[in-house]
Amino acid sequence: MAGQVLGFVGIGRMGGPMSARLLDAGYRLCVYDTNPDAMAPLVARGAVAARSAAEVASAAEIVLISLPTPAIVQAVTLGEGGLAHGNSVRTVVDLSTTGPGMAGIVARALADRDIGLVDAPVSGGVTGAEKGTLAVMVSCPKATLEKVRDILGVFGKIFFTGEKPGLAQSAKLANNLLAAAALVATSEAMAMGVKAGLDARVLIDIINAGSGRNSASQDKFPRAILPGTFDFGFATGLSYKDVRLCVDEAEAMGVPMVVGAAVRQMLAITNAKFGATSDFTSVAKVLEEWAGVEIRG
Hints:
- By secondary structure, the protein is α/β, with parallel strands linked by helices.
- The chain has 2 domains: about 5-165, 3-Layer(aba) Sandwich (Rossmann fold), CATH 3.40.50.720; about 170-290, N-(1-d-carboxylethyl)-l-norvaline Dehydrogenase, domain 2.
- Helices cover about 55% and strands about 15% of the residues.
- The protein is built from 13 helices and 9 strands.
- It has a 6-stranded parallel β-sheet, sandwiched between helices.
- Strand 2, helix 2 and strand 3 form a beta-alpha-beta unit.
- Helix 8 crosses helix 11 (about 235-250) and helix 9 (about 200-210) runs antiparallel to helix 10 (about 215-225).
- The N and C termini lie far apart (about 45 Å).
C-alpha cells in the first residue's frame, strides 16, 4: 500500500528506474547500492540511504533486489552483511536473473530464517522499467504473491508461473535465449544481404513486413545497429550470462540446445572482443568484421 516502507538493493540500470517508479506510486524507500552516486537521485526524492543490505532488511519487511549475477544475489541475500541478517525483513523479492538453481538455493536458505522468496525476474529492458511496461514473471506461494501484487504491478504485467522457486527463472531464461538468438541470426542475415549489395534499411523493412520479423529486426536494429550507436541498453556480459545459464540448465535437464550453444558461442566471442560492458548489439560488429561490411541505414 502507498506509504509503506520498502527496501531496494541494487540501484543499477534496471533498479534505478524501478525504484523511482515505487516512489512515484507513493511508497517510501530504504535503498542500498555499492555505488553511492546511484542512490543520490532517490535520496534527493526522500529515500533513505542505508550502509548495507542488512541495514535495509532491518528497515523494511519487504525488500526488493535487482542485481547482475547469481553470485552477487547469493552474497547480498545470504552473505555477511546480507539481507538474511536484517531483523525486519519477511519477504525478499528478487527481480534479478539468476537461473532456477540459484533461486532454489536462496529460497531454502531464507526459509530457514523464516523469510519468503518471491522469484520475480523481469523482461522489457530499461525502457520498460521506466514506463512500467515490464513483463514480471513470478513464482512463489500464492499467499505471498497477494502481499506483493500491488508492488510488482507498479513495474508492469504480472505472469504467475507457479509456486516452485525457480519457475519464473526458467521462463526468463527461455525468453532471453530467444532474444539473443534473434539478434545473432538477424545479424548474420543482414551481413549477408549488405554484402550482396542490398541497402540495410530496405532489407530490415522487408524482413519486418515478412515472416522473418523478430524482436531484433523490429527494435534493436532500427534503434542501435543501423544508426551505428550500439546503445540498446543491455550489456553483452549479462546477455552472455543469461544464455550460458539457459543452456547449462537445459542440458542438466536433458534438453539439448544445439542452437542455444551456438548463440552462447557468438556471445562469448562478442564478450571477449568488445568486453562485458559493451552493448549486446555489438554482436553485429562481429559479423560486420567477419563479412567485411557495415550494416547501416
